[in-house]
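Researcher: I'd like a candidate sequence for this fold, 589 residues long. If you have to choose between options at a position, lean toward the conservative one.
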């Protein structure tokens, strides 16, 4: 049983709701925030807390149909329920949900219709699950011998098997399921004694008076009753009426019907091809005109979305991310109508552009300078930022760039050297501190990084510093001891922001790095609400030309924004991400 069914506009207005059990929390809001706003609507289901949610979009009306039920229950009829409810609701309230009329206060009396649909799909599901399995037909001989359907019989082709007197069936009655007739090609009788009971051989019947026999179609039959049938003797040789024979020939000759259907389908396809050629040829003009003023379907979208996916992958977007983006665009366009003088390719580009911009735009604007002031004025403590990432991506260099930016905004900054693993790391950070004229807190190598960060924060607070920037050791995402050390540092010191530093040119590898860093921070922490990645710093952004897809992949993976991008080697080479420039580069030919 489902917990609730809700119908609402994409803008958020709820039109109708049916609740069977009260929900804990608000799973539908999580669906909107995590899936629909993150361009994941191409996915089939969403799980949050104790619930599983499935949905369907009616794009022509901007409606969302959502089913919520317990994730421990397996409901196989949900897809059918969504489809039937969507069709019934859109048909019943087509006028009120079209255009701007939905702004009026309309009461949607849909309870009775919904309950009828729900009971119907539940009964259908119960019948299908209780239906006994179909019996497996015994295979023997040729394909023709495996068919267990009645076969038309010519009077002079019937061979009567030896045995006791038959029980003659009544002609015109349907054959009983328990007595299937097996057809096989006739074989000449072997010379000598036949197996079975001895008896007089059957005499052939005289030729039929209906006229000369037609040439054989390759079907000759010895008709015997199946092993599981009710007859133990031979089949009756009573002559069937002509109209019955002809009717059986038309309906039951399988090979002929298959051939005829194939020929008819081929002929219809050829007719359609000729009609297209006469109408407008095979140029872009005919394709363009055929796609105007129609409702978009999968067959219209799939070829163009396949090209779009290849383009995104070529721009360094992760393969899985590109597939999900295209699925989301397809889900948002399916069922919509394309206007006159418009092309599907242009419409796909527009929707994809909106999707990419929505992904890269931060959901919550974080003003770091304002947060620093609030921490100092309201809590009398320094603002703490921890930098993490793999080896060699430029953590220390970009930490120094951000320190330079903060210093230019009149913030007092302290650097904390918590990379006690790599030789030369403290000296490198010390050189940056000397160039920027900033204090450096360090305790040497082979020390506990979490305790060093804690002492640095304490000292910064006593000296009235506004910000502490914590440098950590570069580590591979699969190095468990170093990942546990990072988790300990974050858990003990509870920083205000954890920034992941990654290269813009590594593509899919950056997604793997980021997702595993985020997973380790979440899974290895003993806190109820562990602190995960808060933002991303993309380095070497000036070296990738238009291959800027790593930014999309990383934001899509975590839902966290790109805070800064590094575009050079000097302290001033630090920029905010320009979403429009990135989107245009991704969609450029």
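Model: Candidate sequence:
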């Amino acid at each position: 049983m489902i917990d609730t069914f809700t119908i609402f506009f994409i803008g958020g207005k709820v039109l109708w709701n049916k609740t069977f059990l009260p929900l804990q929390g608000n799973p539908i809001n999580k669906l909107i925030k995590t899936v629909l706003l993150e361009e994941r609507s191409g996915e089939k289901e969403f799980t949050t807390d104790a619930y599983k949610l499935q949905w369907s979009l009616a794009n022509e009306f901007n409606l969302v149909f959502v089913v919520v039920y317990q994730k421990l229950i397996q409901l196989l009829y949900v897809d059918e329920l969504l489809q039937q409810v969507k069709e019934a609701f859109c048909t019943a309230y087509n006028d009120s949900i079209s255009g701007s009329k939905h702004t009026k206060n309309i009461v949607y009396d849909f309870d009775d219709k919904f309950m009828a649909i729900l009971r119907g799909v539940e009964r259908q599901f119960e019948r299908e699950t209780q239906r006994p399995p179909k019996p497996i037909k015994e295979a023997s001989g040729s394909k023709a011998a495996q068919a267990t359907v009645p076969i038309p019989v010519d009077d002079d082709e019937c061979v009567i098997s030896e045995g006791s007197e038959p029980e003659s069936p009544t002609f015109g009655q349907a054959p009983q399921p328990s007595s299937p007739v097996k057809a096989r090609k006739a074989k000449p009788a072997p010379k000598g004694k036949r197996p079975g009971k001895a008896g007089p051989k059957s005499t052939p019947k005289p030729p039929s008076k209906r006229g000369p026999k037609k040439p054989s179609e390759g079907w000759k039959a010895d008709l015997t009753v199946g092993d599981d049938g009710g007859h133990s003797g031979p089949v009756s040789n009573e002559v069937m009426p002509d109209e019955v024979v002809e009717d059986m020939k038309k309906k039951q000759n399988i090979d002929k019907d298959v051939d005829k259907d194939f020929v008819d389908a081929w002929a219809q396809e050829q007719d359609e091809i000729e009609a297209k050629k006469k109408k407008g040829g095979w140029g872009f003009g005919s394709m363009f005109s055929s796609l105007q003023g129609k409702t978009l379907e999968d067959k219209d979208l799939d070829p163009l979305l396949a090209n779009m996916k290849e383009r995104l992958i070529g721009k360094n977007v992760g393969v899985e991310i590109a597939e999900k983006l295209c699925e989301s665009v397809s889900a948002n366009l399916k069922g919509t109508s394309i206007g006159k003088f418009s092309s599907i390719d242009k419409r796909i580009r527009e929707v994809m552009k909106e999707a990419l911009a929505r992904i890269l735009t931060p959901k919550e604007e974080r003003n770091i300078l304002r947060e620093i002031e609030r921490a100092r004025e309201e809590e009398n403590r320094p603002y703490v930022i921890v930098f993490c990432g793999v080896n060699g991506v430029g953590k220390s260099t970009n930490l120094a760039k951000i320190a330079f930016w903060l210093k230019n905004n009149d913030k007092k900054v302290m650097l904390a050297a918590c990379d006690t693993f790599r030789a030369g790391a403290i000296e490198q950070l010390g050189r940056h501190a000397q160039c920027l004229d900033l204090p450096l807190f360090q305790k040497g190598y082979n020390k506990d990084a979490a305790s060093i960060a804690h002492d640095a924060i304490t000292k910064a607070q006593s000296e009235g510093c506004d910000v502490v920037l914590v440098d950590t050791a570069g580590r591979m995402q699969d190095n468990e001891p170093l990942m546990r050390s990072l988790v300990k540092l974050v858990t003990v010191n509870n920083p205000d922001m954890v920034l992941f530093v990654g290269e813009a040119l590594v593509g899919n590898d950056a997604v793997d790095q980021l997702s595993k860093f985020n997973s380790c921070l979440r899974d290895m922490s003993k806190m109820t609400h562990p602190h995960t990645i808060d933002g991303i710093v993309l380095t070497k952004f000036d070296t990738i030309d238009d291959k800027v897809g790593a930014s999309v992949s990383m934001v899509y993976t975590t839902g966290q924004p790109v805070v800064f991008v590094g575009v050079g080697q000097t302290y001033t080479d630090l920029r905010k991400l320009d979403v429009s420039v990135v989107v245009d580069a991704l969609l450029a030919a």
